[in-house]
Amino acid sequence: MADKTVTINDNATGKQAEMPVRSGTHGPDLIDIRTLHSELGYFTYDPGYSTSGSCQSDITFIDGDQGILLYRGYPIEQLAEQSSFLEVARLLIHGDLPTKTELAHFETSITHHTMVNESLRIFFNGFHYNAHPMAMLTGVVGSLSAFYHDTIDINDPDNRLLCAYRIIAKMPTIAAAAFKHMVGEPFVHPLNRLSYTGNLLNMLFARPSEDFEINPVAERALDQLLILHADHEQNASTSTVRLAGSTGANPFAAISSGCAALWGPAHGGANEAVLNMLSEIGTVDQVPKYIEKAKDKNDPFRLMGFGHRVYKNYDPRATIIRKTCHEVLDELGVGNDPQLELAMRLEEIALADDYFVERKLYPNVDFYSGIIYRALGIPKEFFTVLFAIGRTPGWIAQWMEMLSDPEQRIGRPRQLYTGPARRDYVPLHRRR
Questions:
Q1: pTM, entire model
Q2: Pick the residue with more confidence: 123 or 98?
């Protein structure tokens, strides 16, 4: 029995069960209830799994009350300021910051897996011109298993690592192809001489008819956003990847399931919802009116991109990206964009309003990321695709960790059944 335990009393029967308590490096202890049903005959009820631990993980830690986010123990502030996205991706997958040689090898490996099979590129012709890019991304990522079926033995660590590298490398290529299909332009092949994020920008915006020059401020801003989105504990999409992966599904299918979960407006679509909100507000002179609407609990209007379910203090990612957001707006000279002007005015008022300050409803990473994407000329329906590119290393790291965990079993949540009691079949001619 563990040193620390919790005793659960069943007041109906008088039975008791002693449950071990498990402690991690950081965060609250967890009661291990795996024997609860065998000892007392109960399951637990926790809609949304908001107080249930489904696994143990070495990857990411969040303290929402203190505004702390750590990747493999490293504060997100330090990584976002000093690291690159590929360095963070390797950190998440391998567990430690790489040496210069290790990082160079990783970058080379990713670079030489960015191409996709030409047959796969033809898949995009099957999508309608106005198909949502997340529909394309989800479908095409899942189809990768049809091209690499000889190397998806999930029980082989080398195969798992090769799949990890392939998925991280090909996500920008697939995403950019979805973007080009959406805007009706020719696909752009990846260029090995460019950085990961520079390559993404080039594949998004380059055209055969003219040269495209990558703006270093835009490149760094996008790289930073990918870092901030790289992992976030057991959120909805990550849990979906783990749940799908627990069945033994191939990694491409598991990551595709993560894309599908991320698509929801309550998850990866939150920054798109920010721009929809700005469109609803309309003009700067309407901001005070909508601020008052947001304060009215009987009014359905909500300020999107403010506050966070996890962070009860300031979102640490927002602290970083706020500075970058203003740098992008200054560099790209988009001061004449009414919606961006509106966003900055909304931020200014909300940060000074006692109602929002007292409730710690600060702008979060979704608020600033939506503004940056808008400034870069990216359509709002494509925001979640960029989120998916950033989250891919986290999904992959979580999937690999799950497969190496000896305690991991196929996911099988329980339920509280409230339907009809047992009843007998009534023949059709006797029903009234």
A1: 0.89
A2: 98
